[in-house]
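Box S1 | Example of a co-folding query
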Amino acid sequence: MSENSAAFEAEAAEGEEVAVKPVVAVVGRPNVGKSSLVNRVIGRREAVVEDVPGVTRDRVAYDASWQGRAFTLVDTGGWETGAEGLAAMVARQAEYAAQTADVILFVVDATVGITDADAAVTRVLRSTRRPVVLAANKVDGELQEADALVLWNLGVGEPYPISALHGRGTGDLLDAVVAAFPEQADARAAAEEEGPRRIALVGRPNVGKSSLLNRLAGEDRVVVDSVAGTTRDAVDELIDLGGITWKFIDTAGIRRRFRQLQGADYYATVRTSAALERAEVAVVLMDVSEPLAEQDIRVVEQVVESGRALVLAFNKWDTLDEDRRYYLEKEIDRQLSRVSWAPRVNISAKTGRHVEKLVPAIETGLAGWDTRVPTGRLNSWLKELIAATPPPVRGGKQPKILFATQADTRPPHFVLFTTGFLEDNYRRFVERRLREEFGFEGTPVKVSMRIRE
Ligand code: GDP
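Box S1 (continued) | Returned holo structure for guanosine-5'-diphosphate
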């Protein structure tokens, strides 16, 4: 694993970097007001469970923002286990926080002064390279401001006098927190394209794409291209279905005849990925009059890898007899189990059978694709999951999952903040359980982890 302090992002399949909102971890010994501060910062966004001493909080991470900067706020009080000495426990929490957070918000009770536990936290924080913002809490009025000055002695920088309960001084504190965020390329700034939702109709040659398109568009025009091997600019078509306008991507590519061309397969693959690139949801059309082909499965895999929502449409249903139907079910079970989450429609472009079921299936896929799970809810669910099924020991160590955030939608992408490597198996298990809890019908779901050394 990486030796520098840079974030190490592991992605199940691709090893791609994820843009995660900055993480701010609130550390400090019990009773200094961590939960009150968390409450104050998140406001009514997500209710914090009442902080009863001795009762473990069921949520640890929340969505927060200040001055337009969104971040994840982590309450390390939710990690309390209590089986060890106070100073040791708090120090270990600070260690985890330093491993996972971008900024550490260290809360000290100014009316009490520096305790052993505070000193233990300070030792941990000094050895990390994370920025630390020091909150001197319970400074309810000007008279107590002098108490805060003593905290300079901790040696972790300027103490910000605040009252988490009354809100005094928290604005300046949050300014300091936001100022400490790592520089971010504002990749997400590019606004999502407005307008009709974009559908790619894909599938190997001859499955009935152009027939279906003609049926959907309500007209019988087939464009035959006589110029072999030429690429024309993609042409999109707006089609009204179920009272909504949809944009079908690269309909020129669908209506053209590839199959006589040499290298048509390769060309179709390239054209499909170009269409997927611009689409939000893919309808993969398959021909039930023939056994599912490797090429069908490849197209499905292309969609999953592109991260688009997926609908499986089994065409030429009019040709199906009982016998074929039996084998088809077996083929689907065997070859498409990886995408068992995708809505399925059985249609006939020729007769029009069940073609109207495409729109609800597409809408289901897009809804899953767009889904965002609030961080608080995600983490209360995760806490139970981990308690019931902790990650397996690896190399003699038990990796701990401290919290999770949903880094992205379209498709949903979850990042688990951990103290060690999680096996692919365990991440797939988390994905399955996420699906059981939150749905995500019709969309790929990514689960990756973030480990820092
Ligand atoms: P594409 O290459 O995917 O665009 O496929 P086409 O739309 O050109 O269809 C290939 C062949 O399948 C044509 O002969 C169509 O008439 C036929 N076909 C398309 N859909 C259906 C269907 O639902 N039922 C039957 N029986 N034939 C169909």
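The two ends are 8 Å apart (CA to CA). Residues 1-16, 49-56, 187-191, 220-233 have pLDDT under 50 and may be disordered.
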